[in-house]
Amino acid sequence: DAKTTQPPSMDCAEGRAANLPCNHSTISGNEYVYWYRQIHSQGPQYIIHGLKNNETNEMASLIITEDRKSSTLILPHATLRDTAVYYCIVRVDQGGKLIFGQGTELSVKP
Amino acid sequence: ETGVTQTPRHLVMGMTNKKSLKCEQHLGHNAMYWYKQSAKKPLELMFVYSLEERVENNSVPSRFSPECPNSSHLFLHLHTLQPEDSALYLCASSRQGSNYGYTFGSGTRLTVV
Asked: Which residues contact A40 (CB under 8 A, 6 or more apart)?
């Protein structure tokens, strides 16, 4: 599975958009980009995933660059409850393991 | 509730004790996983079960013994643990062949004294 690189921490003001970057320059053609988040001492929560097209759901948007070497998770209106560690993971489709890195610790401030 | 239930939520055990962690899912998934998360470290994948068969054991010491009696239940049997085994133990499940990732439980916070 390809490795990802994320900034260790980010701050965001409440009500503003949070843009979390992820580099995955060695991603293969059959690997998806997944995003999870983990609120303190809870299990990780699935947010969104994509292959090459941009994706949006009720939680977030995922923007993947055309060369697929990087992506950005966007939380459009961050709230204090979005404070968590966000993990970007690349995974082989249909059954690849989820291997977690260090993630980005997002702090949403009033 | 995520559909994956772990019990107990907290466990304190001595190094000579034997205890078991339980995980139960009612999502119709056919693969289950144990992860370990130590303080300030990423999640580490310990065991993978697919269709009730163990398909992966990531160099986990034998004092950790998993059991998957059916596709809905997963256990982690613990014996003669060390203080460094204190961690959050997370169970997850998924449907093999699906791209929708894993669903995690809330974890068991284990303290070995």
From this structure: A84
